[in-house]
Amino acid sequence: MLYSPVCQNFIPNLKSHLLARILHCQYDQELPTFTDRERNNIQIVGNRLEQRFTMTVYYTTYDLRRGADKINMKNRPYVIALSHDDPSHPYTYARVLGVYRVRALHPSMAAPASMNVLWVRWLQIDRTHRAGWKAKRLYRVQFVPSPEEGAFGFLDPNDVICGAHLIPCFNKGIIVNPLPPASRWDYPSNANWQNYYINQ
């Protein structure tokens, strides 16, 4: 079930994400700007989103073995992807709110293609907190505060490096006025802390 204002512009943003992938546009958290006419070129077959509740991410461990993280919205929702717009920190972090499969068709395609997408709530590095090897402290993240600032978006599952282990910063407390729940798994007990430490 989708809630407002969290899901404001859900379909236009989904189409922009799909269009950027089909046209092989380079982007990170910030989507390229497309017009309504360009977005209307994307057809979602049957107007259907097939929902999945888990996703497995395979990665190479530090000792060159194959590892796997099973991402789900209830108790392992955080993921890491490469960041292309922040030279001071190489990764971006997100909480997965939905795992979907879409059949999309574009005029440049001969037939519809199945595309997997993650609907996420983005986190940002807390710049007020000294962290890193020199400071001998874990990095700290917080949720992007509002939908107007790009708090929610879409992520290609192929861009996910692995799952992230985030530890609530208990002494900072919880968010006083949280956004409405974005998914059925978005419980206040594990989703509304002011800050999280990145367990590295």
Describe it for me?
- The two termini are 34 Å apart.
- Strand 6 (91-105) and strand 7 (113-125) form a beta hairpin.
- The strands form 2 sheets. Strands 1, 2, 5, 6, 7, 8, 9, 10, 11 and 12 form a 10-stranded antiparallel beta sheet that branches.
- This protein has 200 residues and is mainly beta.
- It has one domain (10-198): Roll (SH3 type barrels).
- Helix content is 11%, strand content 35%.
Q: What letter string, H or E per element, gives the SSE order?
A: HHEEEEEEEEEEEHE
Tally the helices: what do you get? 3
Number of strands: 12
Q: How many domain regions?
A: 1
Which outline best applies? globular
Query: Radius of gyration over alpha carbons?
Result: 17 Å
Helix content class = 10-25%
Q: Unreliable segments (pLDDT under 50, ≥5 consecutive)?
A: none
Overall residue-averaged pLDDT value: 84
Q: What would CATH call the architecture?
A: Roll
Look at the helices and sheets and give the structural class.
Answer: mainly beta
Strand content: 35-45%
CATH topology: SH3 type barrels
Which terms would index this structure?
ten-stranded antiparallel beta sheet, mainly beta, SH3 type barrels
Quick structural summary:
The protein has 200 residues and is mostly beta strands. It contains 3 helices and 12 strands; from the N terminus they run H-H-E-E-E-E-E-E-E-E-E-E-E-H-E.
